Amino acid sequence: MVDTGSFAAASRELGYTPSAVSQQIAKLEQTLDLRLFDRAGRSIHATEAALYLRARSAELVGLLSQVERDAGRLAAGQAGRIRIGSFRSADAQLLSRSVAQFLVRRRGVEVDLHEGEPWDLLPQVVSGDIDVAIAFRYEVASPPWSSDVQVIPLLREPLTVIGSPSHRLASHASVELDELEHEAWAGNDTSTLAHACLMNTTAKAGFRPDIAFHSNNFDALFGLVRNKLAVAMVPGLTLAGRTDVARLNVTDLPYREVAAVVRMGRPDPLAQAAIDALSSVARELAEENGWELLVDA
C-alpha cells in the first residue's frame, strides 16, 4: 500500500480484490486506533504512522528470516552449544581429535568441555547437564552400563604393564604377570575403577601388588616408571606416541571398553554429530593401534 499508492494497485500485487484490501486496512486502523492512510479520490497517501510501522515491520520480517535461518542451522547441527564430558586419559587422543573433526564444518558451535570419571559424568548426562559423555568400563571390576542412558560402544583398548626402558623384563617376548609380584607398583587412587581392576587382575595371578605410589595423573605414573621407581598397568590411550617407557609383554591382561553416552531417545543434531566424530576417530585409533573396534560399520 505504501509503495503502490492505491488500493487497486496493491490488490493486484496481493491477489485480492480492492474492497478486501480496503476492509483489511480499515480493520487494522480500527484495531490500532491510528489513521494509516489519507484518502484522496482514488489515491491514498501513507501517514507518518504508516511509514514508521512499515519500517519496523521490515525489521521484524528480517528478524523472522534470521530466526528461520538459525533454526535451520540448529536442525542441521551447524549452530548452538554442546557440552561434552570426558575422562583424563581420553583427552589427548580421542577427545581432542574428535572435537577437531566435529568443528571442521561447525565453527559457529560453542563447545563446553567437562572432565570427570564415568560415575561423575553419567548422572550429568541423565540430568541434561552434559549432552555427550565419553566413558569407560573395565572388563573386570566394573559394573555394567547404567540402564538410564544410551550407550554407543566405540572401542576396546588393551591394558599394558609398563616398566623403565632398562627393566629386566623389557626384552622378553612373553611375561607372566606373577613375575612382577615383587615389584613396586604405581597405580591410581584406591577409589577408582582402575585400582579395582589392578587388584582384581593381580589377585587372579595369585598375588597382591605392593602399590608404593598412588596418583590419578598418568603423567606422574609415567614419570615414576621412567625413573625406575615402579611398574604400572595403564590403558592404551595413555601410551600413544610415548617412547620413554617399555611395554612389558604381559599376557592375558583385561581390556577397557570406551563408549559415547547420551540421554535415552534420539540424540539432537549436535549430539549426533559429536557421536559421529567420536566414532570416526575411534576407527582411526583402532586401525593405528590394532585395537578392537566396537563401532557399527
TrEMBL record:
Organism (species): Agrococcus casei LMG 22410
GO molecular function: DNA binding; DNA-binding transcription factor activity
Name of the molecule in the record: LysR-family transcriptional regulator
Domain HTH lysR-type: residue ranges: 1-47
Entry keywords, A to Z: DNA-binding, Transcription, Transcription regulation
Protein family per UniProt: Belongs to the LysR transcriptional regulatory family.
Coiled coil: none
Pfam families xref list: HTH_1 (PF00126), LysR_substrate (PF03466)
Database matches in InterPro entries: LysR_HTH_N, LysR_subst-bd, WH-like_DNA-bd_sf, WH_DNA-bd_sf
Organism superkingdom: Bacteria
Gene Ontology CC, one term: protein-DNA complex
